[in-house]
Amino acid sequence: MRNMLDGKVILLTGGGGGIGSAACTVLSERGARLVVSDIDEDAGESSVELVRRAGGEAIYVKADLQSEAEIESLVAETLAHYGRLDGAFNNAGVEQSNIPLTELRLEQWERALRIDLTAVFLCIKHQVPAMLQSGGGAIVNTASGLGQIAIPKAAEYVSAKHGVVGLTRAAAVELGGRNIRVNSVLPGIVETDLISRLAEQAEFKAFLGRSKDRHLMGRFPTPCEIGEVVAWLLSDHASFVNGPAVPVDCGYLVN
Predict the structure, then answer these.
(1) Cα–Cα–Cα angle for 246, 126, 192, nearest 5°?
(2) Cβ distance 234 to 10 under 8 Å?
(3) Which residue in 21, 31, 39, 220 is deepest, having the highest Cβ count within 10 Å?
């Protein structure tokens, strides 16, 4: 299992964040060669440096995923550097604004859908032709537990993540016969620096406590635990898995 991605070229967006950075480490440990993208250059370069220090192979390519031209260039730079693309983890996204639906501004709604949903569509659109050049591949999209349920003050995020689940299924139906599998992961609340900061705020503390109780191990997952599932879905070990939204939440959605 340790070398299950041996030699595969994986493109990863949002590679500087909590889940993204951890996924870089996990994918590299499994033998993948990485193209790490993030709009935050320092964060993206930091993830690449962690991979390289551990003996892995990775490059950083900055891209603003609100731009189709930059997504197209990101894939082109991947091919220029490695000569192929075997897998992609479309992980970049923005969080909910914590604003009631009736107070949500149009620009907040449109920004969330543009980054959390439309960018995933554009990534798939340009990744697929690159993968077909070498016979196929695998794509994993980051959705969320909120791609299946809803909470207050998150209308734009809930809508976008439901869209990612639907887009993943649509892509799986279209691409499965062309040897490209498309799946999504549904993290619950993940133990990141953001969650640690929110836990210090009174309005979030009670919510996080209730949410932790629904994660049946009594804790939130670590970013690496999400990365392990992503690595498996990108590998040939998941060769007959195509289309599902995979919860990584220790039973949150069924509890």
Answers:
(1) 40
(2) yes
(3) 21
Nearest-angstrom CA–CA distance, 40 and 23 = 17
| Alpha-carbon distances of 151 from 47, 88, 154, 163, 199, rounded to whole Å | 32, 29, 6, 16, 17
Backbone angles phi and psi of 41, in degrees to 5: -60, -40
Residue 132 lies in a domain: yes
CATH of the domain at 63: 3.40.50.720
Which of the following is catalytic: 60, 82, 157, 252?
157
Q: Each residue of 126-151: pLDDT tens digit?
A: 999 999 999 999 999 999 999 999 98
Q: What is the DSSP letter of 115?
A: I
Rounded alpha-carbon distances, angstroms, from residue 168 to 70, 176, 225, 241, 244: 22, 11, 21, 12, 8
Half-sphere exposure of 236 (CA within 13 A, CB side): 11
Q: Roughly how many angstroms between the first and final C-alpha of the chain, as a whole number?
A: 31
For residue 67, what are the contacts with CB-CB under 8 A and spacing of at least 6? none
Residue whose C-alpha is closest to residue 97's, from 41, 19, 138, 152: 152
Query: Catalytic annotation on 82?
Result: no
CA distance 40 to 63: 9
**Enclosing domain of residue 93:** 9-190+222-250
Residue given tokens 């920004």 in the structure block? 111
Q: How confident is the model at residue 42 (pLDDT cuts 50, 70, 90)?
A: very high
For residues 90-112, average pLDDT: 94
Pick from 162, 142, 165, 163: nearest CA to 229: 142
Total domains present in the chain: 1
**CB within 8 A of 196, min separation 6: which ones?**
none
